[in-house]
Amino acid sequence: MSNPNDPIVVWHQQAVSRDDRAQLNNHRGCVVWFTGLSGCGKSTVANLVDRKLYERGVRSYVLDGDNVRHGLNATPQMLAERYDEQFGARFGLGFSQQDREENIRRVGAVAGLLCDAGLVTLTAFVSPFRADRDSVRASLPAGDFFEVFVDASLEVCESRDPKGLYKKARAGEIAHFTGISSPYEPPEQAELVLDANDLSPEELADLVIQKLIETGKIR
Amino acid sequence: MSNPNDPIVVWHQQAVSRDDRAQLNNHRGCVVWFTGLSGCGKSTVANLVDRKLYERGVRSYVLDGDNVRHGLNATPQMLAERYDEQFGARFGLGFSQQDREENIRRVGAVAGLLCDAGLVTLTAFVSPFRADRDSVRASLPAGDFFEVFVDASLEVCESRDPKGLYKKARAGEIAHFTGISSPYEPPEQAELVLDANDLSPEELADLVIQKLIETGKIR
Q: Are the Cβ atoms of B39 and A7 closer than 8 angstroms?
């Protein structure tokens, strides 16, 4: 360990710390975890918050099904094209209980990396199970996890049904569909609860920004 | 689609583009993919580059075994504590050919997200197989993948052996060890080849910075 070229020694001397990154960005990284039924507006609100943060000069990023399910957490079918059926099935993630759990675990791990890199990381996944969300919370430094419950009733979500998923779930074409054939466990101590039955996405996004300012996450 | 509150419409109007992020940061995101034998200095050089970029005001981040193998790509043993043996074995990644391939695939997917978020993303993995690295390259927008071959001889790497892995591999305690019992396929068209037999990590890091400036990735 006395050799100045020793990789381990050099690493520790030179690493960029979270404090360094916070100084460069003028804010710290954190994870804003949106949770709620399909169609409640998570992705819409997260993207509006992303835009509003951008306009304030805050570095942020949205993780949602669009950019995760086609890459990192691809389905068994997608990965079978790359590997073979056996390994596609092993590495790919479907929609069983364990697969959804692993989906959220991986998203949590990536959100943790983005947070460590200094970004205000906005995640938009149904993430219906309390234990899974609590595991992500526990994996992050205290105070870095910001749980936002986008609270819209099943009736409101089903009437919107932007992707036609409720219709398919009611017809029995989608198994384990949250709210229909699989439970949603609302947060018990969310940092923020958004009334998505009555307020517009714009208004909800403003409430998130306000909360981030109040809690000192951004200026 | 005519309702202004429609989630899909709002999303497309409001999303922050890569150009937007590049304008805020004064540089675009890209992936600088370090590859080479264990002990060649990938992680050391990547962390030095990270530090040098930070000092230039460039947003960057290092992905390496330290922050990926304990979270996103945890081993079967680590995940068996969380799930059970069956699902730990399914979701965890060991060191077989397919598991290493999937390890690199996931790292490539995460690097792609960090790149999309605007960061100069530095990855430090042995990544011995050409096909795996080429898959990551193909998954990114043209020109965003920057392959850096950290070229040190097996003799040099084995004499350093910072983690004692070569000793274990020679003793037969580690299977599929690159350079000993598993091949390393050097890049055929790397954007940069670093002579890690003769130059110091400092000098190699400076060459990476120089290349990033020459190719217009940073200023």
A: yes
